[in-house]
Amino acid sequence: MSETPTWLRILSRSGAALLGGYAFSYASTACLARILPLSPADAVIVATLPAFVFYTLAILWAFASRDALRAWAPLALAVPLALIGFWPQALRWLA
Amino acid sequence: MKNTFTQSMAWLHTWAGLIFGWLLFAIFVTGTLAVFDKELSHWMQPEIPASTVSQADVAKRAISYLQQHQANAGNWGISLPTERSPGLSVSTGDRRHGVVVPLDPNSGEPLAVRDSVGGNFFFRFHFTLDLPRNWGIFVVGALALVMLAGLISGIVIHKKIFKEFFTFRPDKGQRSWLDFHNASAVLLLPFHLMITYTGLVIFMMIYIPAGVDAVFEGDSRAYFQAQGNARVEQPRRLAKTPADLVELAPLLAQAEARLGPIGSIGIRNPNTAAALIEVRPVLGNRIALTKGNAMVFDGVSGRLLSDVPELRPAPLTQRVMAGLHFAQFGGYPMRWLYFICGLISCAMIASGLVLFCVKRGRKYAPADSRADAAARRWYRVAEVCNVGFISGLMVACVGLLWASRLLPAELAQREAWEVRAFFGLWLLALLHAGVRPAKQAWVEQLALCAVLCGGLGVLGIFAGGVDHLRLGVEVTGLVLGIGLALAAWRVACPKPAVVKPRAARTMEAKA
Amino acid sequence: MISLVTGSLLFAYAGMLGLCQGLERHYKQVWQRSPSPALRLSLRALGWLGLLLSLLLCAQAWGWAMGAVAWFGVISLAAVVLVMLLPYWPRFAVALVAAIPVWSVLHLFG
Q1: Are A53 and A1 in contact (CB under 8 A)?
Q2: Would you call B311 helix, strand, or coil by DSSP?
Q3: Are B96 and B4 in contact (CB under 8 A)?
Q4: Quick check: B289 and B163 in contact, CB under 8 A?
Q5: By residue range, what is the domain housing residue C51?
Q6: Of A66-80, B100-114, C72-86, where does the model show the most confidence?
Q7: Are A21 and A58 in contact (CB under 8 A)?
Q8: Burial of B366 per CB tally in 10 Å (0-12, 13-18, 19+)
Q9: Touching subunits for chain B (3+ Cβ pairs under 8 A)
Q10: pLDDT 10s digits, B218-246
Q11: How many structural domains comprise chain C?
């Protein structure tokens, strides 16, 4: 791991911050919008308002985490969140 | 990235701050100027007279002009004189591609007003960087996220937030720059966080459409319908039946009693049985952004068809956050608070950028330094960009004001030339920074900027058309110019001759 | 309105000054001696009182919703002014609170 050139490590972390962060905040917004006990129109707004908190946390995580692989954790976390958010669509796709 | 959390955050703060700080500075400066966008627009078009005619009379004149010249147009728009912008203009066609004709509010006759991008340029640049609209929104959004990350990482690495809450130690080189950066960031932290986050909230549905995608299957029309934002429509066949337009004055009075000062009127299908009159208030009767809200009247009977909507808590929250960013509420005192807070934000970003170079100056700047050539070259790039993106951008901004007054009034595509002047000056400033030693470049550009700011009043004297709004712009320019001149002078003579003996003694006592 | 805003700025400044002078290093910076614990405590209490009065004046000027927003701006700006004055003219930075009685007279009888 220590042999990786610096620029590649920075690129990986930046990618994790930008893409992983986006996937994470997108998925958590979708998940929140699905599970919040509000009317759909309100749930969408209330779920989207904190999206940038999630994004910021993911960015900080990407640069703070100890090893390069863990920096991509938000991306992995996005999968189950997106499944909750999009479960009707997912079921339809499976059927 | 590094061994400890704090070190990682310091690394992130330093490098993200440097690379994105240049554009963030531009966004913050233009955003600060956009607080006074209408006033700047008014200044940039000196032909627009001041008027004391009542809104009802002005609206009548505008209508009679439209009846005479545009009786068959499908859409009329009337932008009424308000406290912040005394101009009157009428438009036909839709909002983006309409034809706008400025009128003299005192006579109702067309007025020869120079084309100018106005203060609106700063507003547009603030959220698009003058890129194509959708690209710009995403780039600025990404930069706002970097700003948020920068603020949070800054809090993490600044360990003595409360211990050094009131600390500023001038004339100590790097120490002073760090103190200033910390103080301006910490003391205005609520403002920084608020302005950055609410900026993201404005376009949140564009950035993260996840909710609409998940719950409404990506159908944004269905989402808007669920929000209850349906537009009042008249049966289309009525648009073929001619009918007389109702008298406006009573409707205006009714709307003003309900909404406060009126900003504009829109009339759809005028002179037909389908005529609809929309009366929109000036923004700022409340914190929540009420853009697009209107009272809609039947254009023939004058009956109220739809009132401004009462917002449910969730949309209200979003509107309040957007409103906090737009700063249209609370009148001029609030506007000044936002403006000064914005200026300090700009200074905070600029001081961080300068700090980057000051910190490394001793290592890289001297020609005989032992640092390798590549590192020295990168240091020089940072130095040049600092000058070009900080003082250069300020020169470009005030240069735009000069261009609006100095370019010939009848120039074809005048607005495009103004924008070219802005970017041309910015480019020249970058080139100038590239060929001059850093310190000279700073002094010369800051001094130029000071002269241009202070000289706005001179332009005002020559062009005439003085009123209190334009005078306000010029006086503000003078004050900012004096500040910039002081900055230039401090850079030119880093050890100021006048140090108060007592202050110096306190310093020694502490040191 | 202008008078209320000025007042809220002055009280915010006095409040921040109280909090600042309640800290040993800044008290020393102005007076070259240490404050007694009782003095420190009362300075801080006065500081919070100043901030509170500033909030009340903001609310009077703008109403509670806008006033609360304005208050954050007002206390931030007041603190910046204080921090910039303190190292250059420490005694003047303290003497500036004398503007409050002047303002009170003007506000009440003007």
Answers
A1: no
A2: coil
A3: no
A4: no
A5: 2-109
A6: C72-86
A7: yes
A8: exposed
A9: A, C
A10: 888 888 888 876 677 777 778 788 888 88
A11: 1
Chain centroid offset of residue B411 CA: 26
Across the interface, of C16, C83, C90, the residue whose CB is closest to B183 is C83
- B224: which 2 tokens? 């808007």
Q: Which residue has the tokens 């479960």?
A: A87
pTM of the model: 0.92
Instruction: Report the alpha-carbon distance of residue B119 to residue B103 in Å, rounded.
Output: 20
Q: Which amino acid is at B206?
A: I
The residues with which B264 forms a beta bridge, in sequence order, are B79, B280
Q: Do B334 and C1 touch (CB under 8 A)?
A: no
What CA–CA distance (Å, rounded) separates B214 from A89?
Answer: 8
Is B in contact with C (3 or more beta carbon pairs below 8 Å)?
yes
Spatial distance between the Cα atoms of C58 and C63, rounded to a whole number of angstroms: 7
User: Which of B165, B168, B341 lies at the smallest CB-CB distance from C84?
Assistant: B168
Cα→Cα distances B325→A54, B25, B32, B203, C55, Å: 21, 17, 11, 12, 21
Q: Kindly determine whether residue B183 and residue C80, on different chains, have CB atoms separated by under 8 Å.
A: yes
User: What is the domain partition of chain B in residue ranges?
Assistant: 5-42+121-187+330-501, 48-113+230-308
Cβ separation of B226 and A51 shorter than 8 Å?
no
Cβ contact (<8 Å) for C83 and B191? no
Nearest to C1 among B190, B333, B344 (CB): B333
Plot region of C32 (φ>0 → left; ψ -120 to 50 → alpha; else → beta)? left
The whole-number average pLDDT for the span B304-312 is 83
Q: What would the pLDDT profile of B129-183 be if each residue is shown by its tens digit?
A: 999 988 999 999 999 999 999 999 999 999 888 888 898 998 888 899 999 999 9
Q: In chain C, helix, strand, coil percent, each to 5?
A: 85, 0, 15
Q: Is B244 helix (H, G, I), strand (E, B) or coil?
A: coil
Separation of first and last alpha carbons in chain B: 35
Say what the ipTM of the complex is. Answer: 0.95
Mark yes or no for CB contact B210/A52 under 8 Å: no
